[in-house]
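Lab notebook: predicted structure, single chain.

Context: the supervisor wants predicted structures on file for every construct in the current expression panel, including those that have not yet been purified. This is the next one on the list. No modifications to the sequence; it matches the entry in the shared construct table.
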Amino acid sequence: MNSDFLPISEAPVRRGRGAAFNPPIRFEKLHHEEDPSALEAHELRQIETQFYADTSRSALARNTSPDVPFTYSLNPYRGCEHGCIYCYARPSHEYLGFSAGIDFESRIVVKHDAPALLASAFERRSWQPQVVALSGNTDPYQPIERKLEITRRCLEIFLEYRNPVSVITKSRLVTRDLDILAELAEQSLVRVTVSVTTLRPEIARVMEPRTSVPEARLAAIESIANAGVPVRVNIAPVIPGLTDEEMPLIMKRARDAGATQANYLIVRLPGPVKPLFLEWLKREFPDREGRVVNRLRELRGESLTDPRFGKRHRGEGRYADLLERLFRITERRLGMSGMPELSTEHFRRRKERQIGLFTNADSR
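Prediction complete. Output recorded below exactly as produced.
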C-alpha cells in the first residue's frame, strides 16, 4: 500500500480538524477508504468528536527513551482534540485500533479513574517520589477537560501526596488551576511548560485548529508567572522553512511574559504522521512546501524523519547547527537561565500523614 495513501487531490478539508483523512492502521489488514465524491457537503466539513471510557488499571506510563527527561508520565486522555497536524503522538492511537489521522483528534479515550489510580500508585511502597510528566503524550488541557476536570483532580492528588509534577500544554485552560499550581509551587513541586509554535494566528489556526491562539498562550505564561509558578516556553515543534524564523521573537515575547527558560524541538514525522503532514503542507502552504521538505531532508540526512535517539529532536548538519547557535545566542541575550529544581523531600503517603497527625496531637 502506498505510504502516502490518499491522493492529495482527493483529501477533503475538515472544519476544525488538522488531518484530512485516516491513513491505514499498521496492525490491521483491512482499511476503510473514504470516497469523497459519495459524501454530502456537511459530512466533508464536520466530524463529531466521540469519547470512550478507558479501563486501564494503572495511571502512570513508564518511559525508556534516553532523550526524554522523565521516567513516568500521566496522560488523562488518549488522542487529542487539539488536532495538531505534526503531533508525534498520533501513531500511538493505532494501538487502540484507531487511525492516526482524523480518528486521533475525533475519537478521544478518557481515563476517568486517573486520579484514583494515581493515588494508588503513590500509596505503593515501591513508589519512589520523582517528577511525573503531565502529560508526556497528549495535552492534559484539551477542550473536554473544561467539563471533566480530570487533570485538575490529578493535580489535587499531586498536592495531597506532595509529589512533584511537570505540566506541559498548549492551552490557556491551565490558568483555571492556578490555585492548585500556586500551592504546589510553594513547596517546589511544580513547573509548567507552555508550547508556542508560532506567533502568527493564520498559521496556528490551520496547524493546531483547536488549541489556544498564540496571544492566549503568552497571556497564560504571564498569569502563571504572576502566580509564582515557574514557567518556561517550549518552541515545539519548529518547522524549518515555515516557523523557524520566529524562534527569537517567541523567546523574547515569552521572556517578557515571565518565562525563565526556553527549549525547542524540530518537527518529527514518524510513521503515518509523514503522509498526514505532507498532505496538509501541500494543501495549506503550497508556496512553502518545497522549502520545508528540503530543509527537513537537510536536517535528516536526505530523509524526512530520523528515529535515532539524540538526533530525532534536533537533527544534524549545518542547518541544525545554525538553529542551535541561534537558540543559544538568543537564550544568553535574554537571560533565560533556567528553572528551579523540584523537590521530593515533602512526599507523604496517607498513612504517614495520619501518624503525623496523631503524633502532633499526643505532643500537645
